[in-house]
Specification:
Elements lengths: L12 E4 H4 E6 L13 E3 L22 H4 L6 E4 L8 E3 L7 E3 L3 E6 L5 H7 L3 H11 L9 H5 L2 E4 L2 H43 L6 H6 L6 H11 L4 H5 L43 E4 L4 E2 L2 E2 L4 E3 L16 E7 L2 E8 L7 E2 L1
Parallel strand pairs: 3-6, 9-15
Antiparallel strand pairs: 1-8, 2-7, 4-5, 4-7, 9-12, 10-11, 13-14
Length: 344
C-alpha cells in the first residue's frame, strides 16, 4: 500500500498487515449502559491519549462474549470518523470486555510482537497510508479489507523486541526531559524573584559601593526630590518604620509619593469591543496587562473621544497598576512612545 520506496535493513521484509495477524474483525453492535448487564463495552470515545480509563467504560448486553472478547495483545482500530486509524494495544482488561462495532480488532500472531505493531501504528508511515486510503469520502473510514493491505516493515522477532525496548527507553527520556522543561518557568520565576530580592537588599551593588564611597547618599537625594515636589520630607517620612529590614547605610526608605508625580485612578466607558486603530482612541482593558507584557491590541474603541479627560491619556514612562479587588493583578512600566495610537 505504501508508495514510498524505502530500503529496508538486511533480513527485514516488506509485508502487509493481513499477513502478520491472525484475524481482522468487526466489533459488537449494542447500546451501552452504566448498569452491569454484561461485559464491558469498549468504544472509540474510551480511547484517550493512548490509554483507557476502565472505570468509565460502560457495559452492554452480549450473547457472543467469546467472539468479541478482547485479550492481551489485541489491537483495536477506529474505523470511521475523525479518529479513523486511531489504535490502542490491549495490555489487560480488568473485567471481560467486548469491543464496539465502531472498532476493528487485530488479533496479533507469534510472527509479530504486539508492542512492535502498536508502535508502528503510531508512525508517520502508518498514518500516511491511513490518510491515503480514507480520503476522498465525506466520512473518512477504513474497513478490514483496507487494513489488511497496509504495508508493514517487518524485522526479525528478536529485533522487534529490541526496537520496542529502545522506543520505551527513548520515551522515558523524553518524558523526563518534558518534565524538566515544564519546571523551567517556575525555576525562572524563582530565580527572577531571588535576583530582585538581592537587588533591593543592595547585594548586587555591594562591590560597586565599596569602589565608589563618595556618591551621594539616598537621604540627600530624597531631600532634593522633596523640594522639587514641594513636599516636606519629614512629614512624608514620619510613618515609615522598616528597622527590621536591613538595607545599605547609603540607602533610605521612602514613601512612594516621593518618587512619582501623580497617582490617578482610571475611568471606564461603555465602548464597542473593537480594537483601537491609528485614527481612533482606545481604552485599555485588564487583559492588556499581564506579568511582564503589555498588549496594545487588547483595547476597546472610545466612541466619543471628546468626552475623554486629556489627563487620562497614558503618557511615556507610565506605570499601570491594575487592581481587581481583592488582588492586585499586575504592574507594568509602559514605554508607549513605541505606539502611535492614543490609549487611555
Amino acid at each position: 500500500m505504501s508508495d514510498e520506496l524505502i530500503e529496508l535493513p538486511e533480513r527485514w521484509e516488506e509485508t502487509t498487515l493481513g499477513q502478520i495477524v491472525l484475524g481482522i474483525s468487526y466489533g459488537h453492535t449494542a447500546s451501552s449502559t452504566e448498569t452491569p448487564v454484561g461485559p464491558k463495552f469498549l468504544r472509540i470515545t474510551d480511547l484517550q491519549n493512548n490509554s483507557v480509563d476502565w472505570d468509565t467504560v460502560p457495559y452492554c448486553e452480549c450473547d457472543s462474549i467469546e467472539k468479541y472478547k478482547l485479550k492481551k495483545g489485541d489491537i483495536v482500530v477506529a474505523r470511521t470518523g475523525a479518529t479513523t486509524g486511531k489504535s490502542f494495544l490491549i495490555q489487560h482488561c480488568p473485567e471481560p470486555t467486548v469491543f464496539a462495532s465502531c472498532l476493528i480488532r487485530l488479533q496479533t500472531s507469534t510472527s509479530c510482537s504486539p508492542d512492535y505493531l502498536a508502535a508502528f501504528m503510531q508512525s508517520d508511515n502508518y498514518w500516511k497510508q491511513i490518510t491515503t486510503v480514507s480520503k476522498g469520502t465525506a466520512q473518512p473510514g477504513v474497513n478490514a479489507s483496507i487494513l489488511a493491505t497496509l504495508s508493514v516493515p517487518l524485522p526479525p522477532l528478536n529485533e522487534q523486541k529490541r526496537i520496542v525496548a529502545k522506543i520505551e527507553e527513548l520515551r522515558e527520556r523524553s518524558q523526563k526531559a518534558r518534565s524538566a522543561l515544564s519546571a523551567i518557568p517556575n525555576l525562572c520565576d524563582k530565580f527572577r524573584q531571588s535576583v530582585l530580592a538581592a537587588a533591593f537588599r543592595g547585594d548586587l551593588t555591594a562591590d560597586w559601593r565599596k569602589q565608589n564611597p563618595d556618591f551621594e547618599p539616598a537621604s540627600v537625594l530624597l531631600e532634593r526630590v522633596g523640594k522639587d515636589l514641594g513636599q516636606n520630607l519629614a512629614d512624608v517620612q514620619t510613618e515609615i518604620d522598616r528597622t527590621d529590614d536591613e538595607i545599605p547605610s547609603t540607602w533610605a526608605w521612602a514613601k512612594l509619593k516621593l518618587m512619582i508625580k501623580k497617582i490617578q485612578p482610571g475611568n471606564n466607558f461603555l465602548c464597542p469591543e473593537v480594537p483601537v486603530t491609528e485614527t481612533t482612541v482606545g481604552l485599555v482593558k485588564i487583559s492588556a496587562v499581564t506579568w511582564g507584557t503589555f498588549n496594545p491590541k487588547e483595547t476597546k474603541t472610545v466612541a466619543d473621544p471628546s468626552k475623554v479627560d486629556p489627563n487620562l491619556f497614558i503618557q511615556p514612562v507610565t506605570f499601570l497598576l491594575l487592581v481587581q479587588t481583592p488582588w492586585i493583578w499586575s504592574v507594568r512600566r509602559l514605554w508607549l512612545t513605541r505606539f502611535t495610537t492614543k490609549l487611555c
